[in-house]
Design brief:
Blueprint: H1 25-34, E1 49-50, H2 62-68, H3 79-92, E2 96-100, H4 103-114, E3 120-123, H5 128-135, E4 140-143, H6 164-174, E5 179-185, H7 198-211, E6 215-218, H8 222-232, H9 241-249, E7 254-258, E8 269-273, H10 276-289, H11 300-312, H12 316-336, E9 348-352, H13 353-356, H14 366-378, E10 380-381, E11 383-385, H15 387-390, E12 392-393, E13 399-400, E14 406-410, H16 418-434, E15 441-445, H17 451-454, E16 456-459
Parallel strand pairs: 1-10, 3-4, 3-5, 5-6, 6-7
Antiparallel strand pairs: 2-8, 7-8, 9-14, 11-14, 12-13, 15-16
Length: 461
Amino acid sequence: MSTKQRTLTEPFKIKMVEPLRVTTEEERTRIIKEAGYNTFLVHSDDVFIDLLTDSGTGAMSDHQWAGIMLGDESYAGSNSWLRLERVVKELTGMPHILPTHQGRAAERILYSILGGVGKIFISNTHFDTTRANIEYTGATAIDVLPESSLHTEEDLPFKGNIDLEHTEALIRENGPDNIGAIILTVTNNSAGGQPVSMENALALREMCDKYGLLMVIDGCRIAENSYFVKHREKGYENKTYKEIAQQMLNLGDAFVMSAKKDGLVNIGGLLTLKNDDLAMKCRNLLIISEGFTTYGGLAGRDMEALSIGLEEVFDADYLTYRIRSTGYLGEHLRNKGVPVVWPIGGHAVYIDAGKLYPNIPVHEFPGQALVCDLYLKGGIRCVEVGSVMFGKKDAAGNLIPAANELVRLAIPRRVYTQSHIDYVLDVFDDILEMRGQTRGYKIAYEPPFLRHFTARFEKLG
């Protein structure tokens, strides 16, 4: 029997299509300038391939669409809520399930209770909304990735791990009473979509028990992380993806999820908890800000789709396709000479724009330059994950840059075919030809929080 590598095919058929508008480079030059060179401010009709985010941009299955018709829109105790609650309890092992309209609402509820001036939160990497919700309370968010994980080209199986030694040093330095929580993000989005090992999660649990600390798992991509654990970590090769996810989630005291990722839905979030007193506080805040406890800002039909999505996401054929199709883009980019974060993560390919555009200094945002170039040359929308998103300012107003100047190409779930991805690869041929001519950008306007969403830029030179 032949063992040759066959063409990567999507394990689904297409029932419905959405037309894409093809624009000219002249049109895109005008569009991106009017948007202040910020792709968040570009209208979706003006985008050909949208790799801005994998959050809420996926395609739902026929079973999910059928489930929408079963949505029970009762204000309290709907059947749709009971189904979702049952699925989430089975997955997390936690008794208290709070639905929210999306992940950042769950973060706001939890961290407004745990946070406050003087509190410290430690994470393998806080993502943008997590950091914003923590810092909005006056608390401090600290990232502690292992040093080896900061080297984008080093080939390690679990570059998303938290640095345990550094974490313990921070706990002792600041005192356990001042630690709001330890947050483990799986997979680690800001570190290149890299996975976290079960060994690392178990060790962190032991540390939290040692110092009496709360362990929060941000698991919006828990299924993708489970894929890497099964295929890279000894002792898990015979477990199912769902069993691995259940084991990891049960290590936490709380679980925060933007269901718009591995929930395979377009809207929704979850906050689950073990502690009765903390759950009561969060539930009271949920009622004030989101809705009643059995819908929390979601329609019954949304909860039906989510309960189905949380089961479909652990399908072996789906997860194999998901990880391999993302890897296809990353591996082919690397073969072209494009510097990517290696190995390729689960939901996105990350380009090291600092290395791709060495002629652009950090304070002129090489990542933002690449984002704009990809839109101009191919109508491809993506996002900078570097000093625009994570850079800070010192007392004199000078930029404190991010650890790396990355650009994320996030792949929506079950949306694009291999020919779309091949088109993206073709556009990178143009990028490689023009990279020496590209100029940087300066910020013309920025808000106090999450500036990458609404900032406006000016092109230099």
